[in-house]
Each structure stands twice: as structure tokens, then as C-alpha cells.
Design brief:
Blueprint (H helix, E strand, L loop, with lengths): L2 H20 L4 H17 L5 E6 L2 E5 L6 E3 L25
Antiparallel strand pairs: 1-2, 2-3
Helix pairs in contact: 1-2
């Protein structure tokens, strides 16, 4: 479990406890927790779906948004980019 997963778990527990004690948590606070939960999920590398080999290298679908991603995509400094446009980290390792 990453430090972000642990922090999110503690935050969710605290919000749940406060909700039980006081009976009412503002909807904006609950939305913020869900937003953070989504960020933590996207920051955790996930395996791409349906990897295939093309003349451009390996490609597959993003596990979060299902859009096509290419392993060979590069950033502005010509470094491999392991992130889908939706923000999901992609784990291209063979493990």
C-alpha cells in the first residue's frame, strides 16, 4: 500500500467517524474525498488492457478510460510517457 493509499484510508475513516458522531458531513467534503480517491487510483500504475503489437510498437487500452494508448508516446523531452491522457499511470512492464 502506497503512502497515498494509507493517507486516503485514514481520511475516509475520519470522515466516516465524523459522519457517525455528528450525523452530517457537508456534501462538498464528501465530494473532495471522492476526488482524492480518484487521484490516488490514477496515480497507481495499472496494466493496460488488450496489448497488441503494431508497426509503432505496443498499444493497448487504458484501464480507466478505455482509450487507446501507445507505449512509445514521448513527452516534450523525448522521454517515454507512461500516462494516459486521462491521467492514469500505465504499467507497461512484463511482470
Amino acid at each position: 500500500m502506497s503512502k497515498y493509499d494509507e493517507a486516503l484510508k485514514i481520511l475516509i475513516e475520519e470522515v466516516d467517524e465524523a459522519n457517525c458522531e455528528y450525523g452530517n458531513i457537508r456534501p462538498s467534503a464528501l465530494k473532495s474525498v471522492r476526488d482524492i480517491e480518484e487521484l490516488v487510483k490514477r496515480a497507481t500504475p495499472m496494466k493496460p488492457l488488450g496489448i497488441s503489437i503494431t508497426h509503432e510498437g505496443r498499444c493497448a487500452n487504458c484501464p480507466s478510460c478505455n482509450k487507446l494508448v501507445h507505449e512509445q508516446t514521448k513527452d516534450a523531452y523525448n522521454r517515454p510517457l507512461h500516462v494516459c491522457h486521462c491521467g492514469q499511470l500505465i504499467d507497461w512492464s512484463d511482470k
